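S1.2 Input.
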Amino acid sequence: MNRSEFEVQDRELERQGRRMVHPALRFLTIAAGLAIVGIVILVIGASWSLGVGIAVLLIATIPAVVAVGLLTSSAVARWAARHKLFA
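S1.3 Output.
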């Protein structure tokens, strides 16, 4: 492989791909915080904690899905900026 295969050919796509990473990391942090809270509530083991813990874990999946979508979009944009084939 020569070096020209990895050079960025479309600077705007590369910039957009890099800009999506920071919000994705913020969403991942929010999701992780909510998931930790949900797990702690489940571990407490009070009579009400099972439903609340599961609800908090389900709510934590929302920012996690957004983060995965942003990271995937970022990876596709950065790959496309190099004008390389996907398959």
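S1.4 Remarks. The longest helix spans residues 49-80.
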